[in-house]
Structures are given as structure tokens and as C-alpha cells.
């Protein structure tokens, strides 16, 4: 509405552009007034031309084609004028393209080019530049197929070197044949694929380098050329996808690796957007996991590389946090909802019905990789992996593999290493030490890696004084393990267990009898029932975030009512000190202070020290080194 365009007889296209439509209409009316035309008609082309176009449209395709001059050196100027004159008329362009195609005219022109170049006929070469450029502007795919064939494309490039506007011709052919080198990321043996890659590169070079930037009136002249390049690239990618070649897969892995190393956040953003439009099966992350699982290499070299990339993507340390959203939370929610089931599928399938399905070396290597990634999740993710392990009973499935010749204990060791009472409760409730103990007993007297790994696990529990696990092991497995005397680990666990029992009894005996009455004392069995009830309720709510239980009542505020607080207090490592007798203060409470002595370590009761201020000692944050008294199993001080 704000542009007036016209063409001159010399084939020059001109235009007037206006900022406002009113100004454009005013000038248009004045032009039409001078020409004696109706300003209401948007096109003022001569009626003769219009009728001529109509006649071309009505004629059969093979009739009244444009007559081409004979392809000779002395006719090159005439041919150039003909080609440039038809560009302003779409119908004439169609007719000329049809004539060029039917008569095989392009190959004849390229033969003339070779003759002109040999004769150093500069004028003829300039005409050939105009002719070939004009044929490209005809925008016909059928002509491109001829011009860009292996037989013709270098001569086409040669014609385009002789631009009349340049003092010296460009050496494009020399660049394409000598300077440009074809670098194969992977060896390509398919000759058709190689030819397609070479052709696409050269056509792209013609479009981007040789041809001048098209004016606003020439932009549509090369639309088919752009499409030709695009479809060539699509065909190349399709041919590569059809190649079942390990080297192709390796190259794709390298490219993905560079992307992840460059910007893991960019990859995470892409896969989360992809999840909104695609099924889980075709998500990029799941494709990567499937490639890892299906690696045919016995040593799983490619799978190891992909596992490292997945670990980078799910590492919270390189996730960004903004004021509007948290990348960590969003991506981990996505990963556990859409991808974790694909990762654990081989593990769950191979341990169905509490027995292993396959026990070969490659399966063992794959499961070890999966468990290594799950172990990483246990270390770096919080409630996401905790919920997943509980809901899928994952640790039990992993420990099924203990009776395989390829043993897997790393995940169990890492979970215990967290010293998280929630995990400890899960282990004791599920009796998950049973396959570990059985594997140790079945191993007999052999001193091997399995023996060392299991002993190391129990030694860690003893050294870190994880009380709940120590009690569970001694109460359930000590009779089976007491015969193992070449290490002192199990005797040490029994000693820790007995010392803890003595300390608990000592505390109960040191408290005044009135505080042990039924009115103020919660029965230990009641506490266990509360724990059991809460734990079962948590198991029923699959997929929900792990939370601590709600406070039971105001009268129990002085106690660690939540499961986590209770278990943290219960597992807090107590010093081997002599316990002071509690002394009532003015506020009516008690404080227990300790002085270091061997008698306390041996479980004897001391009545010499006395307590001072009334308060309950806080539970340790890590549950292993705090020197506090476990009040939860002894007394209630509130009324």
C-alpha cells in the first residue's frame, strides 16, 4: 500500500516507497493522470502485454516456445539479451526454462564457455556470465539438476567468475579444487553420500559467495535455489541416519559431548521444552540412555562416555538458580518423572521375582554403570532419589545381585555412608542385610574382594557407631557371624551394642521414679508403633516428597516427636563419659552433664556427679558425633 513499482524498457526495475498510504495514493493518482490511466486499477501494464500473457497461458505447453538462437559464439550477445529480457515476466521465464530443458541448451552453452576460455574471448565470457546468472534467476529446479551435476557444476562456477563489473576474474574454481579440503569426521564409503555432500557445499558456495546479494526485486528469483540446498541437507542427514555404523554413532556422541560441556543448561532447557511436545520414548535424554543400555561393545566404552554426560546433566552443582525459577528443581522433577524409569529398566528387569535373569560379564558391566549413576544420585539429590528408592524398593532389587558372581555392594555402602536414619529405617525394616550376610557366609573362608567389601561395610557401621544398624545386625545376624574371628569387626559390633544397652539402662535407673511413672513416661513400644505407623503411611504415598511427621500434641513439645528428630536423637553418638545424677532446678527440669571416665564406657553407674541447668540437649545434625543423651527412650519431662 505504500510502494509504487515499475519497469523500464531497458529492464530496470524502479520503486518509490512512502511512509504514509495517503502520500502514496496522491502520487499514484498524479502518475495515472499524466498517463491517462484509471487510478483505481493497481496495475497499469499495457493491454497488449496483458493479452500477450493471456495468449501464453492459453497455449499448449509445447507450442509457441521461445525460439532460442543457435548456440554459437557469435550468438552469445543475442542469447544474453533474450535471457535478461524474460526475467520480468513469469510466463516468459517458464517458457524459456522449458525450451532450455528440452533442447539440452545448458550443456551446449558450457561447451562454448570452454572454447571462449581457450580462445581468451573476454567479451564472450562476459556474455556467458549474464546468461548463466539469468538461467539461475529462472528459479527452476529441473535446470538446477543439470547445472549442479558433477559434469557441469565446475563450468557453471567458471562462467560466474567473469563478472563484467570486475577488472579481473575471481578464481573460484581454484579455491574449490585446491584450497577447500573435504574433512571427514568419520570415513564415508558411500559414493552417493559423498557426491551429495560435495554438491551441497559447492551450491552453497555459489549462493553465498559468487552470486551478488539479490536486490529487493530479485529475492524471489533464488527461492528455489535455497530450497534445493535445504533438501540436499535433509537427504544427507537421512542417509547418515540410515548408516548403522559405530563410527557414526561415535561422532554423534562427540558432538553431544561438546554441547554438554559447552552449556549443560542449554541442553537441559531443550529437553524440558521437548518433553512438552514429545512422548517419553523419543526424548533426547531417553535416546541417550537407550544408546548407553544398547552399547554392543563388551567393554561398554561408548556407554561409559554417555554415562559421564548424563552425570554432568543431572549434577546440581552446575544448575543455575534465578529469582523466577529454579533450574535444579525443574530439571530433576523432569528427570525423575520422564527418564529415571528408562535408566533403571535393565536393573528392575534383571532382578524380577527376587532372582537375577542374566549373569554374564556385559550385563554386569552395564548394571555397574547404572548403579554408579544411581549412587551419584544418592549423594547429590535429596528427596527425589529417596522417594524413588522407597517407592520402587530399589535397594532390595540391587541386593538381589549379591548372589551373582558379579557382586554389587557400592550403592548399599553409599546409602549407609549418608548416615541418614530414614535410609537406615528402610534397611532394617526390609531386612536388607540378609543378602549381604548370606553372600559373606557363602563366600566361606576365601579372602577376596567380596569378603573385603562386606567386612569394610560392617566395619564402617562399627566405627561410625550407627546405633540402629548395629542393633539390627547384632539382634538378627550375630549368631551367624560370631564364628568369623579373623577380624574383630563383629565382636566390636556386639560390644558397641552391649555398651549402648547398658547406657540406656543406666539412664533409666538414674532418673527419679516419679518420672518413670505411666503418667509421664511414654512406653518404648508406643514409640516404635508411632514410628511404624508413620513409615507405613509414607510408603503408601508413592511419589510424594519425604516430610517429617506432624507434632502429636502440645504436651509432648519437649520430645523429638517427628520421626526424623527422634531417629537423629536415637542415633547421636554418645561420649564414653560418666553420667551425673540429674538435679532438679528451680524451673523443674533436668540437665544431664557428663565427665569422661572409663566406668561409663563399661556401662557402670556413677552417682558422684550432679547436674545443673534445666534443658534438653539438642540432637546432632549428622547423627554420628553429637554427645547427647537419648531422652526419647527414657523419660518425658513435660506435664
UniProtKB/TrEMBL annotation:
Q: Which residues form the PP4R3 EVH1-like domain?
A: 1-35
Q: Where is the Serine/threonine-protein phosphatase 4 regulatory subunit 3-like central domain?
A: 242-499
A Gene Ontology biological process annotation? Answer: DNA damage response
Compositional bias (Polar residues):
583-639
Q: What is this protein called?
A: Uncharacterized protein
Family designation = Belongs to the SMEK family.
Name the species this protein comes from: Cervus elaphus hippelaphus (European red deer)
Q: Where is the composition biased (Acidic residues)?
A: 531-542
This protein's GO cellular component annotations are: nucleoplasm; protein phosphatase 4 complex
